[in-house]
TrEMBL record:
Residues 4-259 form the CN hydrolase domain. This is Carbon-nitrogen hydrolase. It comes from Flavobacterium rhizosphaerae. It holds the Pfam family CN_hydrolase. It comes from the Bacteria.
Length: 291
């Protein structure tokens, strides 16, 4: 496609769902004023990160997709002529919920959804209590400005997910995410965790020869026990950082990427071409042992 201007909205959230939606729409408008053509919002941006506890009341935060939030965002996308990537808590039917990202094209049309495939269950990240693993497989979406791939947060750690998405033709890979530090941790641990998170995603850019965009929330939640670390970034197809957000501040930033760079990087560093696909069959095993 060529040059595309990407808007990243790194923001903090409050308890009120409507207030978060209105804030996100305001920042989409802000990004559009700065020239953004595709705007990515962070994971579960309409609420605080509720998965720190197992509470049945939190299921009330879920909604249908398409539904109220996507309807509002479709109107905004059409008005501003921007693509919007919107991560939401999906109620599929009674008792069945997903962590889902909707993609809305620049004409306001709803293109479809991706349901998070990898679901964590860690202290303060009890997502298996809320979310059914995705059953739509990996997805790409042909938008007005580029063919994009969307994965969600915990998917970030899996090269298999990024590889399949790239093989489906994604020109830019987006990761809406919500991850942070326990405020009881020391700074060395914090740095190690953030560096691992950023490094694995930059490696997806290198291995697949595509731009990677990661958009994280920021701010203190869980009564101050969790600091979402922000640090949103854009990496080029060789893993070079084109933009890096702070760990502390809300930011709405626009970064221009050139999808034509993929051909240059894949030609000069032909990792995609040189894959030995005939040797990869064992990857579908849980572990390779005598059993």
């Amino acid at each position: 496609m060529g040059k595309v201007k990407i808007g990243l909205v790194q923001m903090s959230c409050v308890k009120d769902k409507q207030q978060n939606l209105e804030k996100a729409i305001k920042e989409v408008r802000n990004a559009a004023k700065k020239g953004a053509q595709i705007v990515c919002l962070q994971e579960l941006f309409t609420s605080l990160y509720f998965c720190d506890v197992e509470d049945y009341e939190n299921f009330k935060l879920a909604e249908a997709i398409p539904g109220p939030s996507t309807n509002a965002l479709c109107d905004v996308a059409k008005e501003l002529n921007v693509v919007i990537i919107a991560s939401l808590f999906e109620k599929r039917t009674e008792g069945l919920y997903h962590n889902t990202t909707a993609v809305i094209d620049a004409d306001g049309s709803y293109l479809g959804k991706y349901r998070k495939m990898h679901i964590p269950d860690d202290p303060a990240f009890y997502e298996k209590f809320y979310f059914t693993p995705g059953d739509l497989g990996y997805k790409t979406f042909q938008t007005k400005y580029a063919k994009i791939g969307v994965l969600i947060c915990w998917d970030q750690w899996y090269p298999e997910a990024s590889r399949i998405t790239a093989l489906m033709g994604a020109e830019i890979m987006f990761y809406p995410t919500a991850i942070g530090w326990a405020t009881s941790q020391d700074e060395d641990t914090n740095k190690e965790q953030y560096d691992a998170w950023q490094t694995i995603q930059r490696s997806h850019a290198v291995a697949n020869g595509v731009h990677v965009v990661s958009v994280n929330r920021v701010g203190f939640e869980q009564d101050g026990a969790m600091k979402f670390w922000g640090g949103s970034f854009v990496a080029n197809p060789h893993g070079k950082l084109l933009y890096l957000a702070s760990h502390d501040d809300e930011e709405t930033t626009v970064v221009e990427v050139d999808t034509k760079a993929t051909d240059h990087y894949r030609t000069h560093w032909p990792f995609l071409r040189d894959r030995r696909i005939d040797s990869y069959a064992p990857i579908n095993k849980r572990f390779i042992d005598e059993e």
